[in-house]
Amino acid sequence: MMEKNREYDVMIIGGGPAGYTAALYCARAALRTLLIEKFAPGGQIGIVDHVDNYPGFSQGIDGYTLATEMQKQAERFGAQTVFGEVTEVSLTGKEKVVVADGVRYTAAAVILATGASPRELGLPREHELRGRGVSYCATCDGAFFRDKDVAVVGGGDTAATDALFLSKLCRSVTLIHRRDKLRAAASYYETLRKKENVRFQWDCVTTELLGEQKLSGLRLRNVKTGEEKEISCEGVFVAVGNNPNTGLFSEVKLTENGYIEAGEDTKTNLPGVFAIGDVREKPLRQVVTAVSDGAVASYMVEEYLQKV
Question: CB under 8 Å to 87, separation ≥6 — which residues?
């Protein structure tokens, strides 16, 4: 049986940097604020070993600490956190409804901050070998590959930071990228280039996962020459982008890439519904842009609530 209704001014779905910044600002504005998070504070940033590009921390900070401090700060001003899985939403009416773990919550406004999930390679046996050499989180699983040979697939900031992290633990790290240079910041490449146990496979894509009960290597194809080769590795860390977590939001207008269509004002096509962080269509997805979204959304929520 579904539990009784609980009313708030604003509900935030997702407890990453965007969500908790929105919760902080909304709570400070004396709004009855509820944040619903499926797993743990921080979203993807919560499992990052080291964050070096968020202002205010001259030596960087680990993602878990940053995330939990954001949670504590928002809750200090009265925001409430509920840990549970959202299974149903109704966002078109004046009263917004969110159901999480059998409890029905209502509010006048909803902020969607559900982020994105790691994209898979789409190879045969990828699911079968997940946890048996295939991973999507270097900081989660890297310790299992201490003193072993591993590979990282990708060319952005995530792939570069994964390779740097793994280079401290593993015997060797092979960074595989389909282009002839990284998309990551130049500073990452310079650091990686100086690592004796890091090598690069440029212009290559992964075409096959090798091994029976567990991963033993990868088959690569050069996109320019068509040449194929095999490399040995006991682990591969996939960092080829993300898919937005928008499966529940059929009422919200999405872009062709599946992200929520919302401008810099964070407004969606539905009155009283706002989108922030990685789930929103935007040119740059970083912690600093996520927290900016959260602050903007809270202001827009206040403006909206004054009119309803």
Answer: 99, 100, 101, 248
First-to-last alpha carbon distance for the chain, in angstroms, is 31
Question: What span, in angstroms and rounded, lies between the C-alpha atoms of 66 and 68?
Answer: 6
| Residue range 145-159, pLDDT digits in tens | 999 999 999 999 989
Kindly name the residue from 9, 141, 162, 278 that is annotated as catalytic: 141
Q: Tell me phi and psi for residue 131, to 5 degrees.
A: 85, -5
pLDDT tens per residue, range 216-263 = 999 999 999 999 999 999 999 999 988 999 999 999 999 998 999 999
Could you count the other beta carbons within 10 Å of the beta carbon of residue 88?
Answer: 11
- pLDDT at 139 (0 to 100): 80
| Active-site residue flag, 141 | yes
Active site residue 203: no
CA distances from 23 to 5, 26, 127, 264 (A): 20, 5, 36, 18
SS3 label, residue 298: helix
Residue 137 a catalytic site member: yes
